[in-house]
Amino acid sequence: MTIKAKSATNGAPVHAPKSQADSALVTALTQFDRAARILELDEGDAATLRTCQRELTVNFPVKMRDGKVRNFTGFRVHHNTSRGPTKGGIRYAPHVSLDEVRALAMWMTWKCAVVNIPYGGAKGGVLVDPKQHNLHELEGITRRYTTEISVLLSPDGDIPAPDMGTNAQTMAWIMDTYSMHRGHSVPAIVTGKPLNIGGSAGRHEATGRGVMFTVREAFRSMGWTFEGARVAVQGFGNVGSITAITAHEMGAKVIAVSDIDGGLHNSRGINMPRLRQWHKEHGTIKGFDGGDWITNAELFGLKTDVLIPAAMENQLTSQTAPTVRARMVAEGANGPTTPEGDAILNDKGIIVIPDILCNAGGVVVSYFEWVQSLQQLFWEEDDINSRLEKIMIRSYHDVKDRADSLKIDLRTGAQVLGIGRVAEASRTRGLYP
Length: 433
Ligand code: NAD
Fold this sequence. Notes:
By secondary structure, this protein is of the alpha/beta class. The chain has 14 helices and 13 strands. The chain has two domains: 165 residues, Rossmann fold, CATH 3.40.50.10860; 153 residues, 3-Layer(aba) Sandwich (Rossmann fold), CATH 3.40.50.
């Protein structure tokens, strides 16, 4: 179903400019087609699963601080609802496109199925650079976008969460806007919200923690020593920073981190507590004196045990993958490796822990938060973390066993597992009408 929104009034682009991100959908579909062939999916079922179920584009005006009205474009896409309500983050970035949101929604469906939680996949996005707006303007943009997409939202239908460029404050505004329309508080409408309005302990850290639970388990299963393993992380936002800090706390050696401006390298290991403090005070890793300044491209080429892309899509490509010298790539970001990059990493014998497994910790704890919000009963952080660890370890072995039994790589194993579970749910429910 495509729901058409009213058109923009003063020239806001309906489609994002063409950018690298446009190929995220090509990546998602290439991965899907490979898994669908292995699963021998019926042609009609495959066509259904490779298409998003609902897509909404909205164009909306917001008054800026200087009194001028600016128009924005946003999307909310539901990929599949066979296994439950849809779940997926909302991204604020200057070049978000509908294709990018479609790919991310599809990956959410497979991800929820891989970790076996009862959700389908969704994703949202607004073409906006959050760094160019003050809090007042971001609140206006968020509240109006929420209102525009509210036909698709509900606590038992579609539950957003943070993604690139959005955070707990954004979720608070979404929850408040939705609640104002209902006349009462609806905390289960979003996850990743602040603790003081019903958020979950451990949600902020969940994705990064989940990445490291998975990496540590993969090391164990390969018989590799985790203690002192060298780790390099691209991206120092929610996922990257918590991944790096958790890696350090678990006993690995973080030798490099980066953000959009570039990276830091210290072969003896970066002092993570000091870097965390620096980042808290300055909002960037730039200027920190505990390492040498390198480019993101140089970070990819470092000799390391684990390389963790945790920034955005399409980072390990036919251009960059040949330079990778890690033993393992663990995908903290969604879609950081293109199909060409993937083939190169596989040829080099590098183990790739795929995004739909590796970064699923965020949606797992979002699921815990949703359950707590619905029940109004809150769990301790230790409980959250041990449940998360159990699910990540179980899911890693589910994927590894599937990959080993079919003699395929972990990404294809994860896709076969996730897509297979969705296809099965869909067959069990039958076709309406
Ligand atoms: P964020 O906005 O908090 O951080 C993004 C980070 O990436 C920032 O440090 C930014 O400087 C850096 N960055 C942006 N462009 C870059 C570039 N070209 N080169 C190097 N660094 C760059 O976003 P986030 O929530 O940490 O999300 C990062 C990735 O993880 C995305 O792919 C997102 O979809 C995925 N993800 C996020 C969550 C979550 O819970 N937040 C869960 C699963 C997956």
